[in-house]
Amino acid sequence: MYQTFDVTARPEQGPPRLAALRKELAAEALDGFLVPRADAHQGEYVAPHDERLSWLTGFTGSAGFCAVLQNIAGVFIDGRYRTQVKRQVAAEYTPVPWPDVQLADWLKEQLPHGGKVGFDPWLHAAGQITSLTKELKGSGITLAQSENLVDRIWQDQPAPPMQPVAAHPLDYAGESAADKCARLAKGLQGAGQTAAVITLPDSIMWLLNIRGSDVARNPVAHGFAILHSDARVDLFMAAEKLEGLQGHFDSSVTVHPPEEFLGAAAALNGSVAADTGTVPQIVADALGDRMIPAGDPCALPKARKNVAEIAGSAAAHLRDGAAIVEMLAWLDAQAPGTITEIDAVKKLEALRREDPTLRDISFETIAGTGENGAVMHYRVTEETDTRLEDGHLLVLDSGGQYLDGTTDITRTIAIGTPGEAERAAYTRVLQGMIAMTRLRWPKGLAGRDIEAIGRMPLWLAGQDFNHGLGHGVGAYLSVHEGPQRLARTSHVPLEPGMILSNEPGYYREGAFGIRIENLLVVEQAPALDTSDPERDMLCWRTLTFAPLDRRLVDASMLTADEKDWLDSYHREVAAKIGPQLSPAAKAWLDAATAPL
Question: Where is the Peptidase M24 domain (predicted)?
Fold first, then answer.
């Protein structure tokens, strides 16, 4: 299987590791050390070699960091992980609600007389360090670059990944690497920049039409790149990863050993673009005053999917939808109390594996029943595996990495007879999902401007959820892709071709969780009879097709338009997915998509 169910970190392992780290602090005359969940490439996902936060603390979430001082070790986590962190860290660690509590404020409170806090300059973006330094001004607290003290005490640290890289076919990419480089180089020329430094793995993969497997669940390879304004590219990546790519790169791409990257950055002339949100501090130091703060030049072009990428994603979702329906039909045939969360994960992966274009799952499948469903990013292990009992809900959040697209879908499923509180909450979540799906909005709006639409039914009931409404998704790339998001913090205008998730939820700690998720692509909205002729409007097209659990829907809470939408969506599911199914699953789908 792609997914395993081993316990990867235990709370009891944290305290002795913390004690060892504090000895190193004393040896280096440091009052603290910052441990992020990041690697030198500043992507969201990291290889086992870089799982320093998990190794030290036991916390396995995909975002967060630890500030280790001699008398306290704060684990900073956002709203998605406030339940999970309680299960995973020992009492010697103090969970800190972030960003409600900012690191600078916390440090000033814990070090009222000042101090020196160390950090690894490869693992912190330049913008982070600049902001933190500014916020600490006048406090007597200074930041000091340091070698990585966690690596010093991590005796069995895995080796850096060294997996082979493969070419991504033009039929799927929709644009040659040479054309992408030329297009982005024109942008550099127009801005008066001689080069751009690129550290994000998925940006490099997209730019050069390659894919890797250095990071589980993400088809990326570790490396660095410099794009020059004449469309040349210097790629800094281990040669052994590229052995199968003879003939893929043209003469404009030159491959160098990764250890030459810092020197090459220091030798650049003119104005050099770099994203301060992702470029490591040590690289910013090498660039010096030649660095021009700018966004990653690949970010927006990558987010605006072309015709081939959208077509591939749509096709992948239809095949993935068939696997989901086969799974739901199988699950419905199991008597309550007879299977566990792990059984569900294994069955779903087996069904996805029947597709020869599947290369991996797109993230560790979340299959949380009962109170586990309230842990937003729950990962089932052999120790936490729970039976699916009568009255439970199962939150099943999963996806696949196919050669033509990346999928991400969540369905909440009733096991046996659901309770009325669960049905009411599910219906509100469904109403939020429908409202966002049906939305038309003026061009130029960002995620922050519209995401409240998906929360309104919950807000009216005094409820909410502690995660964004949606994230960007790549085209056979990272399942979380920026810069676009449906979140209060997203300032990036939504544009045609962007793919985002629409996933409202509700979580009652200790009881149950609910989440519903479809992927949507932004399109130009067709004109209406009432449309202002001078106003550009955008809308969504749904990519995900799988039934929503009608047993959890309280139809009396829905408006006529909401009922019509649900019935229409289910007709589409039946028409698009039905022909791909086994006879038993087809019969189940016909019943599951019957009109309300």
Answer: 315-523
